[in-house]
Amino acid sequence: MSSQETEYHSNDFDWEELRERIENDPTLGYHLVPFTPQSPSSSSLDSQSWNQFHSRHSTGKFFKVKLFKGYLFVQERRYLFKEFPELSSCGEYSKVLEVGCGNGSTALPILRCKENILVFACDCSTEALDRATEIIHASNVVSARSRFRPFCWDFSMCRFPKWLICDSCYENSDFDNNERDSTAVAECFSVLKPGGLLLFRDYGLYDMTMLRFEADQRVGFREYKRSDGTRSYFFSLDIARDLFLGAGFMEVELEYCCVKSVNRRKQKTMHRVWVHGKFQKPM
Description:
The protein has helices spanning 3-6, 15-23, 43-56, 80-83, 86-89, 107-113, 126-137, 144-147, 167-172, 180-191, 208-212, 237-246, and strands at residues 65-68, 71-74, 95-99, 118-123, 148-152, 197-203, 218-220, 223-225, 231-233, 250-263, 268-280. Strands 3-4-5 form a three-stranded parallel β-sheet. It has a three-stranded antiparallel β-sheet with strand order 6-11-10. It is built from twelve helices and eleven strands. It is globular, with a radius of gyration of 19 Å. It has a domain at 1-33 and 195-283: Rossmann fold. Helix content is 32%, strand content 24%. Mean pLDDT is 82; it is low at 1-6 and 65-73.
């Protein structure tokens, strides 16, 4: 086990103490006020922005991707097996669907974990899928080429392809383009078999990244737009719970993952917050 893995923590500070500090800071008050979007989000523009983002960061420090002897290599997210041990204990020939696979840094360690596991991976960015495919094909993972099944899809705007869903689930699932977040979770529910798990990890409320956004970058309540057109949303536990339980899931785990990172060169402490969740489709 590497030193990076052994030093990984998920409860370095108390989220409630962070919340109290942020909400009592008048300079950060603009993050807390209600917000009404002026116009609906455009999925085509979102996809285009993410394509440009992944093209720009295909190599370099942002994704910790390196070019060596003509091949791309990415730093794998191996901490996932501490956060989600179910990934390492799943049965042979299990199928995993990664939604928003990016450059493959999550799919690669999952493929490496077991030789018979299949990973279906989708992303709205064709550039991201190209990078992920290139990185995984260049790896030394056994039969990675045949076990990695990428496909381009914006599942917040349209239903998953029919080949991914059984006929009865496809016919019985509801789809509403006006409720993008709820629709996305409902689509995940539809592709899981009874008893299957959905593993969730995304930006949490009051993460350092959220507090760096300026007031004019707000495009929704807890949603922000970067200068390159890509967007970030910061989840609270209540919002995540409502989304997943509203789609029919049962809650297994749901908590804030709070990690304190120290930049020794700049003498700066960074408070990172993610929402960590496990939800199960009823038997």
